[in-house]
Structures are given as C-alpha cells and as structure tokens.
Amino acid sequence: MIKKHTFAGFGRIAFVLFALALSIMACSSLNSGPYDESFDSPGNWGSGSSADVQGQVLNGSYDMFVKNNHGLYLASAGENFADGVYELEATQIDGPLNNGYGMLFRVDEATDSFYVFEVSGDGYVWIGYCQELCETEAVALVGGDWFRSPAVKTGLMATNQLRVVANGPQMSFFVNGTAIGRTADSRLSEGDIAVMVEALGEPGVHVLFDNFSVNPP
After folding, report:
1. Model pLDDT, residue 28
2. Environment class of residue 30 by beta-carbon count within 10 Å: exposed (0-12), middle (13-18) or buried (19+)?
3. Domain interval for residue 30
C-alpha cells in the first residue's frame, strides 16, 4: 500500500499548539553541541493539549498522543543547530500502525520549514523537506515517497533509533544502526529540532520519545 501525506489544514493547528519552543528559538544562538535531552525535566520543550493532540514531558520521555485522524503534530526544543549527528529514540505504545513518527531538524520558524525523518509502525520510512508546515510543499528527498525498510522495528512497544549525520548539504540517514539513504539539499543550513507524530487516517497514535542528542559531526 502506498502511504501518502495528508497535511492540508492540520499543520497550522499543530504549530500553534507547540509554538512556545519555536518562539524561544528565535533568540537562541547557534548551539555547536554536545546536546543530550533525556526528558527528565520539561525544559523549553513545547507542550499543550487540545481536541486534536496532547504533548508533554512525562515520566522521563516526551509523550505525544494524537486524537485527530489526520495531520502532522510537532513539539520543538527551543534550540538552534547546524551540522551535527542527530539521534532520537521513539517507541509507539498505542494506536494504528499506519502512521508516522520521528524527528524534525533544521526547523526554520521564519518559513515554517524543516527536514523530516520519520518511520511508521508498519515498517515504512519518509525522509523529506517541508515548507509552511508541509501545507504547501512536502518533497521526499530519499526514495521518492514512503518506502519500506527492514531496518524499522514494527508494532507496538518497539523502539526505533533514528540517526542523521548532517554536514552542510550532505545528509545520511540511519535506522537502528542501518544506513537507509543519503541526500544533498541546501535549502536549510540550521534551525531547531523537534519530535513529531503524523496521523494518516486513524486517531489514537501514541508515541514516547527519549534520548534526543546532537553531537558534532
């Protein structure tokens, strides 16, 4: 089954809910790392609750529960990074497996743009660039669209480690230590980081995020 994004009309809701961290980012200087977030305290991470989504730092992880059946929802750190090795652990604990979850990096508040690296509970990967919260542009940079990868651990309670090595426009992507693709794109050179969950037709996607780190490349 080909999986497709359905962003229109939902991205703005997500951005408003978690706008706190991005507003802090606007006055943040470039962080060269190392950065290691274990979510033992809320810090500057955006949080909130609405009819569509709930997100907060809770019990040593970032806990995001999407109540809506469509849309990409994000919570950002209020940091600013450029080149680096970005790593994140993510575990889906409930909900439909036809979904997306993972990290955003080089988030640019001025244009609502970012790079996306997400996996799904049923074993797919999407890597790409989004502008205006994916409402006007969502371009796959690896594989042409969602692609299946045996590197992704599927099902509930399975933890996937995502890693990006970004050096200038050159970016390499890894899932659970396995290289799954590389690309070159110069549209964004620095920005914030964020965790994200995407609903693709069914509500109830619930994901825990932990150990988000950025280290010099």
Report:
1. 63
2. exposed
3. 11-215
